[in-house]
Write the structure tokens for this entry.
Amino acid sequence: MADINKSDLFVRLYLILELSGFLLHLVGFCTPYWRSLHFKYTEDVIQDIDIVIQGFDEGIWRRCVNGICSEINVVGRDWLQVVRVFEIVALGSSLFATFLIVIHLVCQKISHTRRVYFVSIVSCFVTAASILLSSIVYGASVREGITWSYGCVVIGGIFYTASGTLMLFTYFLTRPK
């Protein structure tokens, strides 16, 4: 059996990519800035209206209007439920993938087992696919005002795709002949 520990430099690179992807995904997952719309009113319009809505910021969990935040009402927004499910799956599988790669790096007995490494690869691709699907559904449903939280999630997905691809490449390079 080929020694996968010869590629410790690559394993550290995967870990950096996965941790960066995880942090970006976590920030995007939690923050209410997937979408942001702000309005500008002229002085005469402001005098005619009792309440002026300056704009809103919205994530997949909360919406903030004029700085006051509340949970999003999902009635009639089935697409948002789909985005939430895919994001939760992505978060869980990203935790699992990162945990497995840390185990692979730290524990010598387990690091010789190719199964742990392969399951980490699969978890990376599950994370990337879930992020991709949630990004597509959200982007197709919202279409305007998409901001930085959405971008963090997408970049996190790209990092997981890169990590999984590099891991898969190394897996086939170090397989037994």
User: Anything to note?
Assistant: Confidence is low (pLDDT under 50) at residues 1-5. DSSP finds six helices and four strands in the chain. The beta strands are 35-38, 55-58, 62-65, 68-71. Residues 2 and 173 are 9 Å apart (CA to CA).
